[in-house]
Amino acid sequence: MTTGTARKPTKAERREINRNAAAVARKAKAKELTQLRDNDDLVDIDNVDALADAFASLTEHYSEGNAMLILKQAAAYGLKVRGLRDVGGFNAFADRGRKIKDSEKSNRIFGVWARITRDDQEADHEETSASGKRERFAVVGIYHVSQTEKIDTPEVTATIEQTAATDADRAPGETRRAYAARTYVEWTQAQYDAAETATRGHLLSADAQAAGTVDARDLFRGRADVARKLASPELIEWWESNPRRTLAEHTAAILGK
After folding, report:
1. Can you tell me the distance from the alpha carbon of 72 to that of 166, in angstroms, rounded to the nearest whole number?
2. Is the pTM of this model over 0.70?
3. Of 151, 174, 201, the domain-final residue
């Protein structure tokens, strides 16, 4: 009997596996949330999947307890919360191309618990963990989308479109920062492959090549001044029309900032 090495799933197949796993988890949470909705006055979202999606979206940023708290407060105020797009602070809404209305700035309609890390901050609640550590929390106010208005400028529109494209391409449960880090690795590899072809493999300077300790792939990430010292004239010329990026620059481009 012959045995072979199992084929590794492709990137597309891995995403499909992750999506299926997330769908199963979402259905389980939907069932739990539906029971809570019927017994605990959660926000009135009739569609079970929509309710689960709202909760899943909120827990990308908030704890499960805070996500539930937001949904309960929304129900009390008669507001619908479909996920993170409907709640947040100044910066969160600014990233979505919206600003808090002047008349609403002092009215943070929802309250969530935030852990305090500084001793000089006043706490609204204190508790001791199982390990004996003192935990201190304060209530932080956030807004509902109904308290905001659209910021209509070309720059904001471009940022929103970039963010939407990023979110559509993220794997289930993957944060935007993690997505930026992952795609940076993919982007630098693509740059390396293209540059190697264009320069016919002449990527390193004569000194760097003689040293034998430099990996040419390292020239496509990290500090630009170091990379240029180690790069061949052919690669430096290629960079003139194909600019390299640091991780910080790539992250800013990916997040539309």
Report:
1. 30
2. no
3. 151
